[in-house]
Amino acid sequence: MMNKRFTRILATSVAAAALVGTLGACGKGSASATSEGSNEITMWTHNAGNPDELKAVQSIVDSYNKSPDAKAQIKVQAFPQDSYNDSVVSAAASGKLPCLVDIDGPNVPNWAWAKYLAPLKLDVDLSKNLPSTVAKWDGETYAVGTYDVSLAMLSRKSDLAAAGVRIATVEKPWTKDEFQEALTKLKALGKWEHPLDMGTGGTGEWLPYAYSPFLQSFGGDLINRDGFQTADGSLNGEEAVQWAQWFRGLADEGFMATKSGKDPVQDFVNNKSAIVYTGSWAADTAMTAVKDDLAIMPTVDLGNGPKVGGGSWQWGVTSGCANSEAAMDYLSYSLKPENIAAMAKATATIPATDEAAAMLPEFAEGGASRIFMDFSRGYAVMRPETPAYPFIATEYGKAVQDILAGADAKTVLDKTVKAIDANIKSNGGYKD
Length: 432
Hints:
It is a single chain. By secondary structure, the protein is of the alpha/beta class. It folds into two domains: about 200 residues, Periplasmic binding protein-like II (D-Maltodextrin-Binding Protein, domain 2, 3-Layer(aba) Sandwich), CATH 3.40.190.10; about 200 residues, 3-Layer(aba) Sandwich (D-Maltodextrin-Binding Protein, domain 2), CATH 3.40.190. It has 17 helices and 15 strands. The strands form five sheets. The chain has a five-stranded mixed β-sheet. Strand 5 and strand 6 form a beta hairpin. The longest helix has 18 residues.
């Protein structure tokens, strides 16, 4: 299990993968009705177990409901994250989806393809948003978020100095060779069993979210994005095999464990590692513990620039909403800068707009967390915007675990590509 703040931001791909088969079984468009009255619409959220985020959501809803311009009263219904997707699938099958839902960003194309979601028509200029907070499929925008997160590497400045290693920066990230040299020097200090913690004990969506950016930095990808019809050549080509061999090599050389502890950030705080690969959700914990000695660094440039996963939880309007005008109006209201800022503050996440960031000292220009916004804007790669993504994520996660266990990289990746391509073919290419 990863850091709790992270698990509330990203759904597990295992749960999401069930959507691919279940949506097809339900029949596209089967979720096309709601029974809500015109003056009250329901909004579902996965935040039942996340009191801070749920409180922030409810506060925005309460403010909207009290507004004389409100087009309807919004009623919040919260579900535990682990059962959220199942609840959506069940409601869709019986035509009882609410008007408003939150969706883990990479799952949006799947829900749009299944006709769960309506294209958004908002009174907001979304061009001001971080691109990774706007979810699109087939030329339409189907969801928008108030925040995102970004991966990063955290270390202690004093440890890097002791090893004679420079601090990586946005202007000059570590190269593959520099990273190798840094790890060699840090290991030579003899302070840690493994100087690097890459979160290899994680599961679910962490696996594609965390490790596909390294694959992409090598020049590979989870799928050929020209049509999204095959992973052949992208996930099993020369660059992908090099990524897998490099990744496994970090363990073979003793730089990282093949299965890290349950809480890599806490292990870093307790000085069990020199560098931890984590993200913006860990900033508060690390800053509080390490203070001015904390170095927040970009991920490694493995040949094609540093990469981080883009897209977190977002909001959409269902296709069967009886009062879509009110639902769209509420979403527009929720994207006011002050509301975006409130959500980012409550969730320790990156605000979706510069205007909202300016309201938060830590994310304003010169703020301690501003660098995460720079990472997101400069390095984010959307997880493949295809309805096949939940299946791709699960298969890639299995491949990561097999590679860490020592299996032959090419054999594993060829098998993964075969499974992904078969799934795409069996679903008619996920075309309308």
